[in-house]
């Protein structure tokens, strides 16, 4: 399981680097989370999760503060959380999570991206059953054995712990995200390379040639849509 995470993360990081696109999407996600409950991460777990993830993407404090202040104000702007599922080239499967204030626009944009890249939309549940909701926490400076011992001391039984490149990646149940981070923070871990709830495919495929080109174009088009927050898929990129 483990290698798949860093493989996907590395490809995505190269696209997100030095752009404001990811920051704008975080601004919306933070606003929505803050609007759902108190605009205080200590009493709003959903907001706490988003802010922890924002740290791993180096989202500027000004963007975070602006989104929270907007939620505290009288803004009536509302967003719907929608998930789309579809198929790309040669057995590739894709899940698209969105936050939108215009459902018709979002549905049309997502469908257009699939169509232009040789894919097609599926019905709800046609793809998601092949993925597992997972909490992923990454850190550096410790070995997998050291992390396992720390989690055992905290009475936490996670799915898997793997050493990937120079990091240790922990795979846990989605609702264990906060507990895992808390246990590690109490043990002196100050920063995480990743801390989020994601969807990991049960099985991965590799693509090549025209199929790979179409797939990468499709993912780029989806991630560039203003309403799209997260894109998950089952394609493993080969090491370059």
TrEMBL record:
TACO1/YebC-like second and third domain boundaries: 79-235
Main location per the UniProt record: cytoplasm
Record keywords, A-Z: Cytoplasm, DNA-binding, Transcription, Transcription regulation
GO molecular function, one term: DNA binding
InterPro entries according to UniProt: Integrase-like_N, TACO1_YebC-like_2nd/3rd_dom, TACO1_YebC_N, Transcrip_reg_TACO1-like, Transcrip_reg_TACO1-like_dom3, Transcrip_reg_TACO1_YeeN, YebC-like
SUPFAM superfamilies the record matches: YebC-like (SSF75625)
Subcellular location: Cytoplasm
Domain TACO1/YebC-like N-terminal: 3-74
Similarity comment: family membership: Belongs to the TACO1 family. YeeN subfamily.
Cross-referenced NCBIfam families: PRK00110.1, PRK12378.1, YebC/PmpR family DNA-binding transcriptional regulator
UniProt-recorded name of the protein: Probable transcriptional regulatory protein ACFFK0_28500
